[in-house]
Amino acid sequence: MLKGRLGLETSKVPHADRAGCLYLARGALVAREGTLSFIQGTPTEADALTPGEYGIPLQAVSMILLGPGSTVSHDALRLLAHARTALAAVGEDGVRLYTAPPLIPDRSGLARRQAMVWADAGTKIQIARRMYAMRLGEFLPHRDINVLRGIEGARMKQSYAIWADRIGIEWHGRKYDRGDPLAANLANQALNHAASAVEAAAAIAVSATGTIPQLGFIHEDPGQSFVLDIADLYRDEITIPVAFKAAKQIEEKPSENIERVTRRRLGRAIADENLIPNMIERIKELFKPEEDTA
Is 73 helix (H, G, I), strand (E, B) or coil? Predict the structure, then answer.
């Protein structure tokens, strides 16, 4: 259909040979003579590009993250689809995921492996144990998911207290009323905002790997169970410290907005810690066949 109108070639670069994700914001993603271009408008201080037009090597990346203030043309979408390069509409620095059509990766290995180990009770608990080992720094011997959750809950209480003491904020426990979220203290509000941002990054990673968001190993009922599993891997190293530092900042400058400050801090952490590429590698590591660990 419309063969050759955009100079499309039939060859495609495998995703294994691509660079990963490219974040663009405040500009227009368009087609130019059979290739992709981004016309950068007036950037903010956080944007890496100066105003101008930039050629995008669409087959060199697996996913383009299109941030606020951006548009995309129909021909650009056709180019992306042909190259099997995904496009996700995201919040500032990737702290929200608004929409991301299926990536349609060129290999189904990760999704098939995920489905296979999820469907077997023995391998399912093994993946859960791997996740807890990534978080807690040790491979727990227990094979009951409720016991693992209990141990993790106790460890997290300690982690909250340690980080609160380290950063210098008051902490009286994790408390959150979904019906009245603003009733929570600053630290708990910041934790909610930080967790949402990390979940967005995890959703991008899950989409980029072509894995199945509904098939979680620790979370079970939510439609984004696997996304929540991946986000939780970073609760101690990213979510809690970023949230508590944001709460501390608001304590010192009450005129600032806790959600805005938390999201900005988390956005910087996503970039500085290469969070999304790290999540992608951990997903691959989770489903790498290994012998059972005692």
Answer: coil
Q: What is the pTM of this model?
A: 0.78
Beta bridge partners of 86: 63
Kindly state the tokens that stand for 226.
């696997």
Q: State the pairing for strand pair 86-90/63-66.
A: parallel
Structure tokens at 165: 């003491």
CATH architecture under which domain 15-90 falls: Ribosomal Protein L15; Chain: K; domain 2 (3.100)
CATH architecture of 109-286: Up-down Bundle (1.20)
Average pLDDT by consecutive 10-residue portion of the chain (294 residues)?
44 65 92 91 74 88 90 92 86 83 67 95 94 89 90 93 96 82 84 94 89 94 94 96 96 93 94 92 86 46
> How far, in Å, CA of 235 to CA of 135, rounded?
8
Q: Are residues 265 and 165 in contact, defined by beta-carbon separation less than 8 angstroms?
A: no
Longest dimension (CA), the chain: 64
Q: Which backbone phi and psi does 53 adopt, to 5 degrees?
A: -110, 135
CA distance 174 to 154: 12
